[in-house]
Write a structure and sequence with these properties.
It is a single chain. The protein is mainly β. It is built from 1 helix and 14 strands. The chain is globular, with a radius of gyration of 15 Å. The protein starts with 9 loop residues before the first strand and ends with a strand.
Length: about 190
Amino acid sequence: MTAFPPPRPVTARWRSLEGDGLDHVVVAPKDGRIVFRGAVIGSRGGAPYGVYYRIDCDAGWRVRELALGSVDGRGLHLVSDGRGHWANGVGEALPQFDGCLDVDLAGTPLTNTLPIRRRAWTPGETAELRMVYVPFDSYVPAVDGQIYTCLEPGRRFHYQAADRSFEAVLAIDSDGFVTDYPGLFTRVI
């Protein structure tokens, strides 16, 4: 069983392998929380985007708040109790996301770190998870099923979409951040 070290300040940057995209994030543990602040530029399906995001997690790497904004003025604000119950930024419950502990942002491999870091994995262990998936073209969140299997604790995970439409072997660093996402992203710092 492998556990990751306590969170520490980290700056990470990934380059998209599907064009000219770039994601830059700063991780800042503070007062029992872990705060991710990042900016992503890129394009998907021919549509360019520029997004800034903040994800606040509790000490157990459970998402408690997500805030997104874009250069064209659109935004999204979601809050969670950390146990799988969500609301929008004005407190209206979003029961369609019940059971989702994580978010998955379309243009960054950062969000793969959240379920990887949240547990101490053993080789061969598999977890099927429900995510709040946010595409950057619409900002309309939806539930997405994802399956993670630990191949080498602290080094490699098999990721698969629950509908079997996509899979990849993710290489991670000692902090649990993706370093190689074949065909999609590579870490540059």
